[in-house]
Design a protein that fits this description.
heterodimer, A: 103 residues, 28% strand, B: 554 residues, alpha+beta, Sulfite Reductase Hemoprotein, domain 2, 18 helices
Chain lengths: 103, 554
């Protein structure tokens, strides 16, 4: 039996800055995971992924990352995605510099 | 020190011009990422977890003050005010923006630096003993050979699409400080009947399948060196497993075919190509060698040093751990630790880089070295200048007296930066250093090398750490495996795994238990951790880690 599809978001890095970005429902690339479109249907996720992969002039390294619904939007389910949305742990650089994580 | 010829400068300038145009085409949308990626990798530009990363080669770990100042300028102008020195004598910038990278490369070219072949399946930055040209125990300075190999390997048409990356390290001493047995080719300068030649090792490497290099040839003469090394790479280039990335490194080729068969093929190839080497390589070598002539050393009293050593306990502690024997009387090799307790191993701020550049210029014959252990070295310092140097280092957070001790940890960037990492390494290093500083045990424990990698690729050399730590992803959680008894010197050995790994919040207490077990079991302060481990075996450490009942079962 095929594995059940778990919710995903589409993520990538911005071409110019390298920042981690997420695809929103209204086709923007947001710096905030909470604004990402949470994809719960596999077929829809594949269509959105193809669309995102076509934006090679804006983003690099597009992929589907597992996420879970949270109170203020999608939340990471794996520590790698937690680091990607926050920034490194040794300095307050990256995302956390401009957008401190919510308590 | 070697200075670029017009040819070198023109070559780098042309590459930079090409890359600038490639970046422009990428930004304008004329190149896709698939088309652009191999081009940016050829110029050392990676895409990591949070940003791009630019890896700049520091050939054989040697810098002058102008180069160090330029590295500081890059950090300040296009990055976040710091740089990260790596285990391969490179510096990495973690936050460059794509449109800025061509300017960064042009700025580097002004001081004879570049990022060519710091990525991709090519011959990478040739590394060397960081005490080269200064160590008392040296047969000859290994850097002229490293520079010869750099020139030969840069843009070598046969070696631009190798089965996998290829790393060469050179030492000029029996005491191997360049980890040559963990390189694809390790070269040791040796002397036989007053003739300088080279012992060639092949097939070492860490990563997924760690192996200790084997001797391919005990003595290759100066005239034969370049054709011989070329033969090794050529033989592997044809034999190497391009079908399987995990079996592509030369260590697997040597393992599968056997060292005798590799030697037979190398010898056959060598016989074929040797006549095509006209002798130009040896003429070139002589010219390079002249560029590495030692500085003129001063002959004066060390009384100032002797007094400071007697009267200033902080200076004495630093001198005891951070100095090394120099070949010239009255001189010392001074090591600057980039491992202040709680800081990121290998990181230096732009200000710190400038301070080190100033010290090199005023006191150190304008020379700096970057070690594979992620520290900086002033290779030629007269002892009378050391108290002054130490005073300046102290003001800039650079006087940590911990070289070779438990907090002098090698750590790869890990999952804080690296896209390949499976777990973090930097915070583990920070917490181990902080913990042993709290315990005030560091100096009592004595020489102990901890090396941490955040994935199986082993950039943090964990296999050859006295204590090695490997961070993995186990079912979506960071998990750390421990190995003991590794050694990266001339007595190279791979560490032995203790047993099941530890969670992120368990790893520092686990290391503490190992170290306390060592203190409890050692013969006395004279027996180092590694010596005690070799005498005792793994059992008492397993007992300390997992409890007595599991020590035999694990």
């Amino acid at each position: 039996m095929a594995r059940a599809f778990t919710p995903k978001v589409i993520t990538a890095n911005a071409l110019l800055e390298g920042d981690v970005v997420y695809l929103t429902e209204d086709d923007r690339w947001s710096r905030h995971l909470s604004e990402a479109e949470l994809l719960t249907d596999e077929a829809h996720a594949q269509v959105r992924l193809l669309m995102a992969e076509g934006q090679s002039e804006t983003v690099v390294g597009v992929y589907l990352a597992s996420a879970a619904p949270g109170e203020t939007g999608p939340e990471p389910t794996h520590f790698r995605e937690e680091f990607r949305r926050t920034g490194p742990s040794n300095y307050t650089h990256g995302k956390q510099e401009h957008f401190p994580p919510r308590a | 020190m070697y200075d670029y010829t017009d040819f070198d400068a023109a070559f780098v300038a042309e590459r930079n011009r090409q890359f600038r145009a490639q970046v422009e085409r990428r930004v304008a949308g004329h190149l896709t990422e698939d088309e652009f990626k191999p081009l940016r990798l050829m110029n050392g530009l990676y895409l990591q977890l949070h940003a791009y990363m630019l890896r700049v080669a520091i050939p054989y770990g040697t810098l002058n003050s102008a180069q160090m100042r330029q590295l500081a300028l890059l950090a300040e102008t296009w990055d976040k005010g710091y740089g990260h020195f790596t285990t391969r004598q490179n510096i990495q910038y973690n936050w460059p923006k794509l449109p800025d990278v061509p300017d960064m490369l042009d700025a580097l070219a002004k001081v004879n630096l570049h990022a060519i072949q710091t990525s991709g399946n090519t011959i990478r930055n040739v590394t060397a003993d960081h005490f080269a040209g200064a160590a008392a125990d040296e047969v000859a300075d290994p850097r002229p050979v490293a520079e010869l190999l750099r020139q030969w390997s840069t843009d070598h048409p046969e070696f631009q699409f190798l089965p996998r990356k290829f790393k060469i390290a050179v030492t000029g001493s029996d005491n191997d400080r360049a980890v040559i047995k963990a390189h694809d080719i390790g070269i040791q300068v040796v002397e036989r009947d007053s003739e300088i030649g080279y012992r060639i090792l092949v097939g070492g490497g860490l990563g997924r399948t760690p192996m200790i290099g084997k001797v391919l040839n005990d003595f290759v003469s100066q005239d034969d060196l370049l054709p011989y090394v070329e033969s090794v790479v050529s033989v592997w280039n044809l034999l190497g497993r391009r079908d399987n990335k995990f079996k592509a490194r030369i260590k697997i080729t040597v393992h599968e075919h056997g060292i005798d068969e590799i030697r037979r093929r190398v010898d056959a190839h060598f016989t074929r190509i040797k006549p095509s080497f006209s002798g130009l390589d040896t003429t070139l070598f002589d010219a390079i060698k002249a560029a590495f002539a030692p500085p003129t050393f001063r002959n004066e009293s060390t009384a100032i040093y002797d007094t400071a050593y007697k009267t200033d306990p902080i200076f004495r502690a630093w001198a005891d751990t951070n100095l090394w024997t120099h070949r010239a009387p009255g001189y010392a090799i001074a090591q600057i630790s980039l491992k202040a307790h709680g800081e990121t191993p290998g990181d230096a701020t732009a200000d710190q880089m400038r301070v080190m550049a100033d010290l090199a210029e005023f006191y150190g014959h304008d020379e700096l070295r970057i070690s594979h252990e992620q520290n900086v070295i002033l290779p030629h310092v007269h002892k009378s200048d050391l108290p002054g140097i130490h005073g300046i280092l102290k003001k800039h957070g650079l006087a940590t007296a911990n070289i070779g001790l438990i907090s002098d940890i090698i750590a790869c960037p890990g999952m804080d930066y690296c896209a390949l990492a499976t777990a973090r390494s930097i915070p583990v290093a920070q917490e181990i250093a902080t913990r042993f500083e709290e315990l005030k045990l560091e100096h009592e424990v004595g020489p102990l090398k901890i090396k941490i990698s955040g994935c199986i690729n082993a950039c943090g050399h964990h296999h050859v750490g006295h204590i090695g730590i490997l961070g993995l992803d186990r079912a979506g959680v960071e998990n750390y495996q421990i190995t003991l008894g590794g050694d990266g010197t001339q007595d190279a050995a791979l560490g032995e795994r203790t047993g099941p790994g530890f969670a992120y919040d368990e790893i520092v207490p686990a290391i503490e238990r190992i170290v306390l077990a060592y203190l409890a079991h050692r013969d006395g302060p004279g027996e180092t951790f590694l010596a005690a481990y070799r005498r005792l075996g793994i059992a008492p450490f397993k007992a300390a880690l997992y409890g007595a009942g599991q020590a035999d079962a694990a």
